[in-house]
From TrEMBL, chain A:
GO cellular component: endoplasmic reticulum membrane; serine palmitoyltransferase complex
Keywords: Acyltransferase, Endoplasmic reticulum, Lipid metabolism, Membrane, Pyridoxal phosphate, Sphingolipid metabolism, Transferase, Transmembrane, Transmembrane helix
Major localization class: endoplasmic reticulum
GO BP: any one term: ceramide biosynthetic process
Protein name per its UniProtKB record: serine C-palmitoyltransferase
PROSITE patterns listed in its UniProt record: AA_TRANSFER_CLASS_2
Organism: Pyxicephalus adspersus (African bullfrog)
E.C. number(s) listed in UniProt: 2.3.1.50
Recorded superkingdom: Eukaryota
From TrEMBL, chain B:
Pfam families: SPT_ssu-like (PF11779)
GO cellular component terms given for this protein: endoplasmic reticulum membrane; serine palmitoyltransferase complex
Main location: endoplasmic reticulum
Protein name: Serine palmitoyltransferase small subunit B
The UniProt record lists the keyword Lipid metabolism: yes
Pathway: Sphingolipid metabolism; Lipid metabolism; sphingolipid metabolism
Species this chain originates from: Pyxicephalus adspersus
Alphabetized UniProt keyword annotations: Endoplasmic reticulum, Lipid metabolism, Membrane, Sphingolipid metabolism, Transmembrane, Transmembrane helix
Length: 577, 80
């Protein structure tokens, strides 16, 4: 139901609501280390830094060392759902479900007209098509608040958007346009992290000149007549930007995932996938035919256990070793706002000799001092990640996806991936937009504009997150992630929050089941470098106002330490040859 | 002034009620069914407690005073 289009299937429904909070502290202070690393993580302070601090003053002295993997503080919080709120949320869903059954009964007995798709008369005896829970949910719960999604936007989705006003006279079954436009709505929902979604400025100018030169369409695939010099230029630039040997650009980010994973792994291979991975990764993994195992979100103990089991036991029944083991993670998780524990993942991958597929859709451009994604954020070597995937759709204000990695990998994909063989290549003006934006971030346009944007985004993110936490909202995720989920929980509040915010001229994305677990409905803000401090302040005032109106300030600032994570169980030592 | 404040407060309270019970998203006729059902249930609870609680309290009192022995009984008898 979420605007982000995350499929329901990529979540395990029975995810327990864990009080999760942990901090990894940066260099300084405590300098005793358990594991000896192989030197790469040494700091100038002479020591290795690491240490998980369980948050809260109580635990200040209680440290857990894990072999000096982090170069910066890593603070990620998931506050526990308050018991009362959880009970009321379930009660709300209960009431809605009862009314849903009543309405379904009435539709069945033709007391009211059914607007929804139904089986044809002659198919009545076949397997029912519209009786599963998702259909029930769409018909009876989602429909009631559907006006919050898919609003047509009629301007550039920059920091402000114009939205077409629409109304319904049959309770959201159909919408009609009133012909008016809601102007200047503050956009807190687009993934416009660096503010490159613009209809003016250098990017727009250069892509319009490329449009005049090349036109918009290519009408062929990369392997045939669709390989333009712009694409080659873009790929060289992406490789340089990422710090990898070679890169490959595609016209669509979703297809980059769903078509390239099948090219990389197949039957007899194992995919270890985070439980909250994006639908495109899930689809790719399923299409590949490889065995898929799911580990708990960002939980390295769970990942290590799966890796160990995979290596010890091999394939089921035959017990042959797996051909390849591919770990699939995302940089920033778009629904939780959490950042992958990349240093630990890389250490595990090295220790168990697996491959790593990193989807940087949300993190590229948005994280790191140079805007080069999570690898840059943690100060790691991009060569440690085997497959660096990302999209141009978010930070660069373009469209499409890339894969970066070794020359061998890219050459293989160029030949074998469905996306290069069958998909039409990227539109040249879009490629130019990405090239210009990327050069701007790298500072190759001779200005510091890109760098300023990256810094502005980091600053905005910290400010926005800090203020929201201070106001008493429950905010999920890492303190550096520009994706800011604000918990709403109750189903009626999803609708009310979206409507009340739009009344105050702020456009937000609200998300509910199936994109999130059923009780963890949320509003998701995406901070942008294009937001000025005044805009953020205004947004914060309005959010606070709506928060008071809807009683959303649930937080009791109880960060219960994560009790089910015995930190000292994993050692990130590489096995020596 | 005061009346306005109370009116505001009541409307806020009603809004919270709507949100928590999810009748916020119900159609008006569903809302009235829901409210009617809830009011009926509450009325029945109040009525039955009005009818039965005094009886039960009296029975309980008699029971406990029976347990606690004759002395209390005699005082009660004396008083009545
Ligand atoms: C993690 C992740 N991967 C891939 C995609 C798909 O990218 P695109 O929108 O460019 O198709 C998204 C988009 O939301 C995403 O969040």
């Amino acid at each position: 139901m979420g605007a982000a289009g995350r499929g329901g299937a990529d979540r395990s429904g029975d995810r327990t609501v864990m009080p999760r909070c942990n901090t990894v502290e940066g260099p300084g202070g405590h300098n005793t280390y358990k594991a000896a690393m192989n030197g790469t993580y040494k700091s100038e302070h002479g020591g290795l830094k690491n240490g998980f601090v369980r948050s809260g003053a109580l635990f200040e002295e209680e440290k857990f060392y894990n072999g000096g993997l982090y170069k910066r503080p890593f603070h990620e919080a998931f506050e526990e759902t308050p018991m009362l709120v959880a009970v009321l949320t379930y009660m709300g869903y209960g009431i809605l479900t009862l009314f849903g059954y009543m309405r379904d009964f009435m539709r069945d007995w033709k007391i009211e007209k059914c607007h929804n798709a139904t089986e044809r008369e002659e198919q009545k005896d076949f397997v029912p098509l519209y009786q599963d829970f998702e259909n029930f949910y769409t018909r009876n719960l989602y429909m009631r608040i559907r006006d919050n999604w898919n609003r047509p936007v009629c301007s550039v989705p920059g920091e402000r958007v114009d939205i077409m006003e629409r109304f319904t006279d049959d309770y959201n079954w159909t919408f009609k346009f009133s012909g008016r436009v809601i102007k200047g709505v503050m956009n807190m929902g687009s993934y416009n992290y660096l503010g490159f979604a613009q209809n003016h400025g250098v990017c727009a100018d250069s892509s319009s000149s490329v449009l005049h030169e090349y036109g918009a369409g290519v009408c062929s695939t990369r392997q045939e007549m669709g390989n333009l010099d712009k694409h080659e230029e873009l790929e060289r630039l992406v490789a340089r930007f990422l710090g990898v040997e070679a890169a490959l650009a595609y016209g669509m980010g979703f297809a980059t995932n769903s078509m390239n994973i099948p090219a990389l792994v197949g039957k007899g291979c194992l995919i270890l996938s985070d439980e909250l991975n994006h639908a495109s990764l899930v689809l790719g993994a399923r299409l590949s035919g490889a065995t898929i195992r799911i580990f708990k979100h960002n939980n390295m103990q769970s990942l290590e256990k799966l890796l160990r089991d995979a290596i010890v036991q091999g394939q089921p029944r035959t017990h042959r070793p797996w051909k390849k083991i591919l770990i699939v993670v995302e940089g920033i998780y778009s629904m939780e706002g959490s950042i992958v524990r990349l240093p630990e993942v890389i250490a595990l991958k090295k220790k168990y000799r697996a491959y790593l597929y990193l989807d940087e859709a949300h993190s590229i451009g948005a994280l790191g001092p140079n805007g080069r994604g999570v690898v840059d954020y943690f100060g790691l070597d991009p060569r440690d990640v085997d497959i660096m995937m990302g999209t141009f759709t978010k930070s660069f204000g373009g469209a499409g996806g890339y894969i970066g990695g070794s020359k061998v990998l890219i050459d293989y994909l160029r030949k074998n991936s469905h996306s290069t063989a069958y998909a039409t290549s990227m539109s040249p003006p879009v490629a130019e937009q990405i090239i210009t934006a990327m050069k701007c971030i790298m500072g190759e346009d001779g200005s510091t504009l890109g760098r300023q944007r990256v810094e502005q985004l980091a600053e905005n993110t910290r400010y926005f997150r800090r203020r929201l936490t201070e106001m008493g909202f429950i905010i999920y995720g890492n303190s550096d992630s520009p994706v800011v989920p604000l918990m709403l929980y109750m189903p009626a509040k999803i609708g009310a929050f979206g409507r009340e915010m739009l009344k105050r001229n702020i456009g937000v994305v609200v998300v509910g089941f199936p994109a999130t677990p059923i009780i963890e409905s949320r509003a998701r803000f995406c901070v942008s470098a294009a937001h000025t401090k005044e805009m953020l302040d205004l947004a914060l005032t309005k959010i606070s106002e709506v928060g008071d109106l809807l009683q959303l300030k649930y937080s009791r600032h109880h960060f219960v330490p994560l009790l089910d994570r015995p930190f000292d169980e994993t050692t990130y030592e590489e096995t020596e040859d | 002034m005061d009346v306005k404040y109370i009116k505001d407060y009541l409307s806020w309270l009603y809004y919270q009620y709507l949100l928590i019970t999810c009748s916020y998203v119900l159609e008006p006729w569903e809302k009235s069914i829901f409210n009617t059902l809830l009011l009926t249930a509450i009325a029945m609870v109040i009525y039955s407690s009005y009818v039965f609680i005094p009886i039960h309290v009296r029975l309980a009192m008699e029971f406990f005073s029976g347990i606690c022995g004759g002395q209390h009984e005699s005082t009660i008898a004396l008083m009545s």
